[in-house]
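Are you able to produce any protein sequence you like plus the matching backbone structure tokens because I've never seen that pairing?
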Amino acid sequence: MPPLSRWFIKTALVCFVTALALGAAMQSRYLRTALPMLSVIWPTYIHLLMVGWLTGLIFGVAYWLFPRSDRLHPALSARLGWAAYGLMNTGLLLRGATEPVTALDPTTPVRWLLPLAALLQLGGACAFVAMIWPRVRAR
């Protein structure tokens, strides 16, 4: 298994465990009364599951299993793959840190980080598509 696939899958597993811990915390009656701010982490929980766990796992397995057609330019493929990994996970971390703060105070000065996080994730998805496209085109 290529190192990039291992990193995608390991990071996806960390996101999965983190999302399950957040979900359990949100369901705990004791924690909800002790920490009322838990109600604002629902979007972060969903984002960790959908982008962190599911998308990260799909990207890692797709990079590993799709047949290689980048024999002429393997360095470009690897750079695009690592760029996709970095952009997706940086955007995910940024969103996870910013979204609860913005939900608690919509006028906070850090609210501009949410569109930046979305753009980072979009850039990561575009880098992944650019990397995987030659592998799925018809011969």
Q: What stands out?
A: Residues 3-136 form one domain. The first helix runs from residue 3 to 27. The chain has a mean pLDDT of 86. The CA atoms of residues 7 and 126 lie 19 Å apart.
